[in-house]
Please model this.
Amino acid sequence: MVKLNDKQAQAITNLRGNSNFRVFVEMLNTMIGEELHKGLSYTELLHVGRGQGRGVLLTELVEAIETAPDTLQRLKPQ
Model:
C-alpha cells in the first residue's frame, strides 16, 4: 500500500494543478491498462504474479495521487 507522509502529500497536492503532472498521471493510468492486458497473455504463473504486483503498485500510486489533498488535511496538525 502506498502511504504518503505530509511532505509527499503536500508536494503531490501542489503538483496537481500542473498540466505536465496531469500528463504523467495519464501515463500511469495507461501503464495500468497495459499491465492488465499483459496479464491476460501471460502463460507462466511467475509472470502473472509480477504483472499483478506492478498493476497493484501503479493503481495504488494513482490512488495516492488522487487522494493527496485529503491525506494532507488528515495529516496536518489541528
Observations:
- The mean pLDDT is 87.
- Residues 19-41 form the longest helix (23 residues).
